[in-house]
Amino acid sequence: MAERDPGELHAVAEVEDPTTTAKQKAKRKKLFAGLAGGVALIGGGYGTMNALVWSKHAVTDNAYVGADVAQVTSQLAAPVSAVLVEDTRQVHRGDVLVRLDDTDAKIAVANAEANLATAIRKVQGLHATDNGLAAQIAARAADQGKAAAAVVAAEADLQKASIDLQRRQAVASTGAVSQDELTSVRTAYNNASAALRAAQAAQAQAAAARNAAVGDRNANLAMIANVTVDNNPEVLAARAALAQAEVDLQRTIIRAPIDGVVTRRQVQVGQRVQPGAMLMTVVPVQAAYVDANFKEVELKKVKPGQPVKLTSDLYGDDVVFHGKVTGFSGGTGAAFALVPAQNATGNWIKVVQRLPTRIALDPKELAAHPLRVGLSMNVDVNVSR
Question: Least crowded by CB within 10 Å, which of 71, 129, 163, 364?
Fold first, then answer.
């Protein structure tokens, strides 16, 4: 076959070009139409899924199990005599965890009991003293009356001696009374005068003694007025000290404050613990909850009380937990970080924040499939309800 001239081939190509171009355009139109239909179909499917499913759910895998753990601490300074639990041990409220040496506590109780007995006897003595002081006042009153009678008698004697002296002095100049008799009468007068002063001094002394007895009784009454032995302040203080000593003795036995699992045991036999020192932690796994850290843009429709479905990485998708939203944290995780971000300085880049959301779990499901603090959870909140 003879070869065609290049010029002829070019002419043939020019003749065939319009048809080929039309076919290519039609093919491209079909491709673009198919692509547009696919995009429309995908957009419609996305819109349908968003309207029917995705807009009704808030989902995150940034969620972890938490619990209000109880720290077991000592309230006394004492050596440890026994540790009865290990880590991972399941305990119930009231179970004995640690025993402290109770020697010092028992001595303190005995000392407080002795102080209480002493205080009771002292107050009883004050009540008994009141009766004695009342008797003393009566005796001093009798002495005071006796002294008053002695003063009256001394005054009578002085009056008689004064009259005798005046009579004899009146007739002494006539010689009817001897000098010896006059001297004797004068001496009797002086003695009666001295006796009166002595009686008056005795009367004052008796009055002072009675006043002193009254003062002693008033002071004693101030200690026991309107109170009995049982409610006397000194007895109450001694009884309170005894109660404190007994409480300290009871605190030598450290018990579990809640039901849970023992973890982070840090105490050993022979160790001397101090008040407030943490000995171990009890985790109440039966009261665990979940903190889901949703992005702030995902929380618009999330409300307390909405139902939640959860799965854990521990059990997989075959075990589904049910719960409900109970509330939101007072701040984002960044706000309560140990070193909060300082966005007011330097170059600033907006970072979407996450807000912890508390989710309560079904206790029956927790009992069937126990969780542990810190485990990862997948959370799906139904925001349509």
Answer: 364
pTM: 0.63
Q: What structural domains does the chain harbor?
A: 57-68+284-382 (2.40.30.170), 70-104+250-283 (2.40.50.100), 105-246 (1.10.287.620)
Q: What is the 3-state secondary structure (H, E, C) of the chain?
A: CCCCCHHHHHHHHHHHHHHHHHHHHHHHHHHHHHHHHHHHHHHHHHHHHHHHCHHHEEEEEEEEEECCCEEEECCCCEEEEEECCCCCCEECCCCEEEEECCHHHHHHHHHHHHHHHHHHHHHHHHHHHHHHHHHHHHHHHHHHHHHHHHHHHHHHHHHHHHHHHHHHHHHHHHCCCCHHHHHHHHHHHHHHHHHHHHHHHHHHHHHHHHHHHHHHHHHHHHHHCCCCCCCCHHHHHHHHHHHHHHHHHHCCEEECCCCEEEECCCCCCCCEECCCCEEEEEECHHHCEEEEEEEHHHCCCCCCCCEEEEEECCCEEEEEEEEEEEEECCCCCCCCCCCCCCCCCCCCCCCCCEEEEEEEECHHHHHHCCCCCCCEEEEEEECCC
Residue 315 vs residue 32, higher pLDDT: 315
